[in-house]
């Protein structure tokens, strides 16, 4: 067959090391679908474009190279927008390929026509339209490089349907590997002096682009420099949560004792994290005076440096080079300060009790014990995630797939992508009842693709996060948060999954064993019934709330 612009796109993805792409097929990019048929790349057919985009985002997180999603024009593109938002907020490399009307129809408000440059210009790092067959290889390589460089993020490539089948002799080239920024000798000298005088320093880790070697380097740095370590919102896998220097996560629902202790710090050393709303407790954790005196912020994204506070020292550096440089600084010991913060974490992860229903704290604890340190744990958004984040102890990089964007419906597709991209590793998705039904159709994808995922549904019959806020701000006036749910186990069985309903905590362990045994042949789902009054770990709604 003649080589076409679509062929160049397909070859460019393979040249970049892309092994999986996620799609809902559409007539607006038929030549590209055909070109991908002959490529050594697995094309995963999804049931909704939002799920396809989130699968690509999860794959990008795990692989460290752009996840790829393909959607059709108009409705397909707008459905996929949530995945772009997650990739932006989570700083994940993502390539979204969108079909478009032919150039002969542009500007006429043709069927499903949209202006993607205007639509996605505020969320994507770049929006590019492929019109010239001779430049296709250049433009795709540049799009992939852009998605990975600096602060990673989403790039949109628009595909006019009357251009894809045009002949092209453009070469398919892999994107250039950009060397990550490293700290200067002058910055290190200033930092060494600040650390030498600090009595209560804290190391905050987060951001994208971490490798397992970076986690090990962070442990060595914490031990060498006598630093307690906290992790940013939904970045717990940047440090071993069982390490004696680990003090917990700063995010939504953070340990109040940890927040108070961090406020006592006389030096806050941030590596990788952008210092956004959640880890800074609504931008209230720091003030201008502290920042100018005792904040050291190292980040690969130069735009994050000085965005809210003007730090004592701003360092444009990626986590790997920054940690390597920190390992050369003079050693220090602060055993009492480290032990004090670590003790706060030890107390915080003691399982909480419930008065009725399945106890999510015990569910999460049992999952961690049975799945092991290499398991990938996925979740979307909702109050159920408070138990997941608090009681899951991450030991390795790449074991937490949770949207910094706070997107509901993320966990199910993310888990499916994880099972396909990282075969052989245990994968669990913990989802709330509202959360899971935003992507329940992808259970069909899990069966079709043979994704061995354990889904655990926490069912309390409500949108729990909003119900909690209503009880706090409008007591006795709940509205729009009660849910009528299906029998989740029966629903899962209708797709072909192994599924059971768990009514009390004691029944979970044997049900888990049966589900794990079933994973040899198919995905599994455990439907856990929770008491709606158990609204958060250790917190129960009072009658009339």
Q: Could you characterize what this model shows?
A:
By secondary structure, this protein is an alpha/beta fold. It folds into 3 domains: 5-160, Thiamin diphosphate (ThDP)-binding fold, Pyr/PP domains (Rossmann fold), CATH 3.40.50.970; 185-348, TPP-binding domain (Rossmann fold); 360-540, Thiamin diphosphate (ThDP)-binding fold, Pyr/PP domains (Rossmann fold, 3-Layer(aba) Sandwich), CATH 3.40.50.970. Helices cover 37% and strands 17% of the residues. It has 20 helices and 20 strands. The chain has helices at 5-15, 30-36, 49-63, 75-90, 116-120, 136-148, 185-197, 212-225, 256-263, 288-294, 319-326, 335-348, 360-371, 384-391, 411-421, 433-436, 442-449, 464-473, 488-495, 508-518, and strands at residues 20-23, 42-45, 67-71, 94-100, 126-129, 154-160, 201-205, 229-231, 246-249, 267-271, 295-299, 313-316, 376-379, 400-401, 427-432, 454-459, 498-502, 524-529, 534-536, 539-540. The strands form 4 sheets. The protein has a 6-stranded parallel beta sheet, with helices on both faces. Helix 4 (75-90) links the parallel strand 3 (67-71) and strand 4. Helix 1 crosses helix 2, helix 1 packs parallel to helix 6 (136-148) and helix 3 packs across helix 15 (411-421). It is globular and about 70 Å long.
């Amino acid at each position: 067959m003649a080589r076409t612009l679509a062929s160049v796109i397909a070859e460019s993805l393979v040249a970049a090391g892309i092994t999986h792409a996620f799609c809902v097929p559409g007539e607006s990019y038929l030549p590209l679908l055909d070109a991908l048929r002959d490529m050594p790349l697995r094309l995963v057919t999804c049931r909704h474009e939002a799920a396809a985009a989130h699968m690509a985002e999860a794959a990008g997180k795990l692989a460290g190279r752009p996840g790829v999603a393909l959607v059709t024009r108009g409705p397909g593109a707008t459905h996929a927008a949530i995945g772009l938002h997650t990739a932006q907020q989570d700083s994940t490399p993502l390539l979204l390929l969108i079909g478009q009307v032919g150039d002969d129809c542009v500007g006429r408000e043709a069927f499903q026509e949209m202006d993607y440059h205007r639509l996605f210009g505020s969320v994507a790092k770049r929006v590019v339209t492929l019109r010239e067959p001779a430049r296709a290889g250049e433009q795709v390589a540049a799009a992939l490089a852009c998605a990975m460089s600096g602060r990673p993020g989403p790039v949109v490539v628009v595909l006019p349907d009357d251009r894809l089948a045009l002949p092209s002799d453009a070469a398919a080239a892999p994107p250039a590997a950009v060397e990550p920024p490293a700290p200067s000798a002058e910055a290190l000298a200033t930092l060494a002096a600040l650390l030498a005088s600090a009595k209560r320093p804290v190391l905050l880790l987060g951001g994208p682009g971490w490798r397992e070697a970076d986690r090990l380097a962070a442990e060595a740095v914490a031990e060498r420099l006598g630093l307690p370590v906290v992790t940013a919102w939904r970045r717990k896998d940047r440090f071993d949560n069982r390490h004696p220097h680990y003090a917990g996560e700063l995010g939504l629902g953070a340990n109040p004792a940890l927040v108070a202790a961090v406020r006592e710090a006389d030096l806050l050393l941030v590596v990788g994290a952008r210092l956004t709303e959640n880890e800074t407790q609504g931008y209230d954790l720091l003030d201008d005076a502290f920042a100018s005196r005792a904040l050291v912020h190292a980040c690969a994204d130069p735009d994050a440096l000085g965005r809210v506070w003007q730090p004592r020292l701003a360092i444009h550096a990626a986590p790997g080079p920054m940690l390597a440089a920190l390992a050369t600084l003079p050693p220090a010991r602060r055993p009492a300060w480290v032990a004090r913060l670590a003790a706060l974490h030890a107390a915080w992860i003691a399982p909480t009790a419930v008065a009725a229903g399945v106890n999510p704290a015990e569910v999460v604890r049992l999952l961690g014990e049975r799945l092991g340190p290499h398991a990938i744990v996925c979740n979307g958004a909702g109050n159920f995630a408070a138990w997941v984040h608090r009681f899951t102890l991450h030991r390795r990089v790449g074991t937490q797939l949770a949207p910094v964007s706070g997107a509901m419906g993320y966990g199910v597709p993310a888990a499916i992508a994880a099972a396909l991209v990282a075969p052989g590793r245990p994968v669990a998705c913990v989802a709330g009842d509202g959360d899971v039904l935003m992507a329940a159709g992808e259970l069909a994808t899990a069966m079709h693709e043979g994704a061995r995922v354990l889904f655990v549904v926490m069912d309390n019959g409500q949108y729990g996060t909003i119900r909690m806020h209503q009880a706090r701000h409008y007591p006795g006036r709940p509205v729009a948060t009660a849910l009528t749910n299906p029998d989740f186990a029966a629903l899962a069985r209708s797709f072909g999954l192994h599924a059971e309903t768990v009514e009390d905590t004691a029944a979970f362990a044997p049900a888990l064993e049966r589900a794990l045994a079933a994973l040899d042949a198919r995905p599994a789902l455990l439907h856990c019934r929770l008491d709606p009054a158990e609204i958060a770990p250790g917190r129960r709604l009072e009658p009339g709330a």
